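Backbones bend. Shown next:

***
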Amino acid sequence: MQTISGKKITDHQQMSDIQKNLYIRLMALIGLVLLSISIVTVFQPDIPPGLLGYRLFKVSGVSMEPTIENGSVLIVKQTDPALIEKNDVITYLCYRGHQACTTHRVVGIEKIGEGKRQFITKGDGNPVKDPVPIPQNQVVGVVKYVFAPTGILSVGRIQQILIFTGLTLFIACFRYIDNRKYTETIA
């Protein structure tokens, strides 16, 4: 047992304080990460930042209707191109036109060179395949979840939730640290 300012402190209390400090720092870090993601998403809406291999995209077009409606929110998982199969719905970088990314279904796979592939894609609502195959280095990932535009979740709503949660965690952590410093100076 140790004494600090005439108080007896047990090893358990010291460990508890260390755990609280780590927890508070972790919550502050998570808050900062959520804030960073939401801020970057606002300034780079075409290719949003990822978190743990997942990215959020908002559909702006009708080429995948009726499967994916215009305005839907997609959760896209970064995937090794070797694991992509026919009929997977992928999001890929598209340098033609005004859109940075496109989401279409894989209708064919071609091998080009050793270990390299390219994907033949087609929008479910389009009568023909896309004119240019997609090289594997342009694939962002495979669509894992689709939220309809009429649902509660939208890209704007998700950004609001991230900003609110991030700010709340960040402020709560610093208020706890401030309060703790204040109570330590009184004791």
